[in-house]
Specification:
Blueprint: H1 21-31, E1 38-46, E2 57-66, E3 73-81, H2 88-94, H3 98-119, E4 130-134, E5 140-144, H4 161-184, H5 206-209, H6 211-221, H7 229-233, H8 239-247, H9 249-252, E6 260-263, E7 272-275, E8 278-281, E9 288-291, H10 292-302, H11 311-330, H12 340-349, H13 351-369, H14 381-387, H15 391-407
Pfam families: EcKL (PF02958)
Domain CHK kinase-like: 141-330
């Protein structure tokens, strides 16, 4: 594999030996229904850049093949698997449910969603074609390469308001179909009993347990932010547990008036690709049934940037919600239509999600957005603490913390 090593994750510089011509001949024989297919040439390279993801390793394959009925043809594939070398990422993924979840999404859930949309006359595509998947002897998923079809990940700039609307439209349709299924056929989601909070030992990781105290220390050291320190001190000892309660609400404490959907679970810019007005969502390893507010709260901190956090934030949320309700009408949803007022209230009620994202995950996502490798943040508290003093993160806080104060987020903690 030849590539620019500086831009790649260290564990994607060398592809596993089992990704060979025989492996690809086997899966292409099955996918293309061409048992006589032969692989003539294979080129492998890293499929992602630093900061794109953490819960897998990914490779791009360019395969030249021939069959009895065709001369040379080329196919481009993406391979997603787990690292073979011992380390934190392998330990996390080996014992998690992220691959079974994503396989279920590609093979059962999203095809069902598209079928419901098609029957209503909506031709929206929700996922890239899955070529192959397996849990044994290795956890692996193979997709068609969307880059070869003209899609691209946005890098080195924030998304425009139009691009964000494209992404939120796709999410709104996804949420609407899942909201209907939860009412009509909830057993479809029985396999999706896991989320980010159920990753092995995630709640005991240093970056989770120490994040709030590090954040509070930063507030003390930055004069303009010091007035907010007292609010976050009130969260000590309960922030993580309250966040877990929010994420697991549907499974453990379902509310009668709750607006529940299948949440994407990791709705940020590197998990979507764009081709003109079309946005393709990616990476369904963290998908779970929960409050529809959760993906939108996540977007505020992980997808939007400061320029989109003023009036445009409200515009984007309205655009998403309108798409959601309009889609419910189109697919013949029989229940009471959700209201924007109640949805806004549920966003507010889930504010411990905001607090956890701001103090713990947002600094990491912003670091990754700069093209950095998240693995270095696992090296120690000092490295993570430095992120909180970066100008780009401080600028976000200078907007977000007053916003929280003015909206009453710090009342009755």
């Amino acid at each position: 594999m030849s590539t620019n090593h500086d831009n790649c994750n260290s564990d994607e510089l060398e592809a596993p030996k089992w990704l060979d011509a025989q492996f690809f001949m086997k899966i292409l024989n099955s996918y293309l229904k061409k048992p006589e297919l032969k692989v003539l040439d294979l080129k492998l390279s890293p499929a992602s850049a630093k900061g794109d993801h953490y819960a897998s390793i990914m490779f791009r394959a360019e395969i030249v093949y021939t069959t009895q009925t065709t001369e040379k043809s080329t196919v481009n594939l993406i391979i997603k698997t787990i690292p073979e070398e011992q380390g934190h990422k392998k330990d996390l993924l080996d014992n998690s449910h992220v691959f079974p979840t994503e396989i279920a999404m590609y093979t059962e859930i999203l095809p069902k969603f598209e079928k419901i949309l098609r029957e209503a006359g909506d031709k929206t595509t929700l996922y890239a074609p899955c070529v192959y998947h397996s849990l044994e002897p290795r956890q692996v998923i193979v997709f068609e390469d969307l880059v070869a079809k003209g899609y691209a990940v946005i890098r080195n700039r924030p998304a425009t308001i139009e691009e964000l609307k494209y992404a939120l439209e796709k999410l709104g349709k996804w949420h609407a179909v899942s909201h209907k299924i939860i009412k009509d056929q909830p057993e479809l989601f029985e396999k999706l009993q896991y989320d980010v909070t159920t990753l092995p030992n995630i709640l005991k990781e240093d970056f989770m347990t120490s994040a709030l105290s590090v954040f509070i220390n930063m507030l003390e050291n930055v004069q303009s932010l010091r007035p907010y320190k007292k609010y976050f001190e009130l969260m000590e000892g309960k922030l993580v547990n309250r966040w877990v309660d929010v994420i697991r609400e549907y499974r453990e404490n379902r509310q009668e008036n709750g607006y529940y959907v299948l949440c994407h679970g990791d709705f940020h810019l590197r998990n979507m690709m764009f081709k003109g007005p079309d946005c393709m969502l990616l990476d369904f390893q963290m998908s779970y049934v929960g409050s529809m507010a959760n993906d939108i709260i996540y977007a505020i901190y992980m997808l939007f940037d400061t320029d989109k956090l003023g009036d445009q934030c409200n515009e984007l949320i309205y655009h998403y919600f309108k798409t959601f309700v309009d889609t419910l009408k189109i697919i013949d949803f029989k229940g009471k239509l959700p209201s924007l007022i109640e949805f806004r209230q549920q966003i507010f009620d889930k504010r411990y999600n905001d607090f956890l994202l701001m103090t713990t995950l947002m600094p990491t996502i912003m670091f990754m957005r700069k093209g950095e490798d998240a693995a270095v943040l696992l090296e120690g508290e000092e490295q993570r603490s430095k992120l909180l003093y970066q100008k780009y993160f401080q600028a976000e806080l200078e907007y977000l913390l007053p916003r929280m104060l003015h909206l009453g987020y710090f009342d009755q903690l």
